[in-house]
Amino acid sequence: MAKFGNRRFQPVRLTQAREHLGMTKKSLALLTNLSQQMIGSYERGISNPTDGVIDKLGDVLNTPSSYFLLPPSEEQVDHVFWRAMKSDTTQSQQRTKQQLQWTVETIDLLEEFVELPKFELPSLPISEWRSLSDERIEVLAEKLRQSWGLGRHPIEDMTLVLENAGIPVLALEIENRKQAGFLYFSRLLERPIIGVNTFEQSLSRQRFSLAHELGHLIMHRSVMPNEIANTTLNPKIEAQAHRFASAFLFPREAFRKEVYDFSLAEFSVLKRTWGVGILAQVYRARNLELISAEQLDTLIRQASRKGYRKPLGEPWDDVLKLERPRMLSRAMTALAEAPEGLFGDFLQDFYFAEAPLEEAFGHKFSIQNQRADDLTNVIKLRPRELNPQKSFNLKE
Length: 396
Hints:
17 helices; four-stranded mixed sheet; single chain; three-stranded antiparallel sheet; disordered C terminus; 7 strands; 434 Repressor (Amino-terminal Domain); Arc Repressor Mutant, subunit A; alpha+beta
């Protein structure tokens, strides 16, 4: 049977827009005065909607009509490492996954105009992940710190460390706070993307999530999706990333020199310097065998009575401000400030809903002038005919 409607319609785009809003086919049908069966036939490619129906779908889904005509990307996001509690919902992850899909496609478009910092990691010999010992993980964290010139000192800005290594960081307000962060390695972009949830998150939790995802990147590139989903293997994978995060944020030699009486009060003071949560330091002390299991239990009970396990429940959580990504925002600013109408050329090929990507990129998708930030890398406009190459140093 011949299909009517607009033949350029792309079924997957409707599915993506709907799932990003957490909307079912039934709810979309009710809002558009279409049948649920018709929505299903559009998404399966059995039928094509008319231009009028496409406009209606765009209005309901807050998406430009042209988006539904955009051919699918050559890369569909999969194999995401989620830093989430067991009660995190599939629907919540699906919404974030769609936002990540659009971010990958937009970065791919952006890189036609702007040269982002090159993704580089030092060569760290990694054995098969299952055989990684705690000692080996500590050494990996120490070697990475040494390679990046961090020594044994507190890290002032974990986000900046990652972005200077060419890793875009997304700070997203995901209403389900149980979804703390994620890591995805894009084959299309040839670089990883790390995301963190800013909803009811403290600075120390944000930094730990970033270091946790960095641990996955260093140690778990060979892990297969079925291993991530395996209820026996997943806890080991997550425990390794936890150990790496602790070791990277607070190196063991520095920890042994800094901590004296292993009290919550002392860990609270060190939190201001090292940006590591009090409970995280308690577990760090136990992992390094500086306190006994009985001392660990005592400190955990004390912390629970003080409400430290609640969101933003530790001392300083309401004072220490979250870190903010710079790379993508500064790249957009560089493009917006460029001559020869390059930003307009970029927007002409931009077909996505603005709101989720403005959050991901930290920048309005309109021409604005913003001052430079303090990335130490350089973002450059790509050479264009009639437009000399211009560098934009991100360090003030």
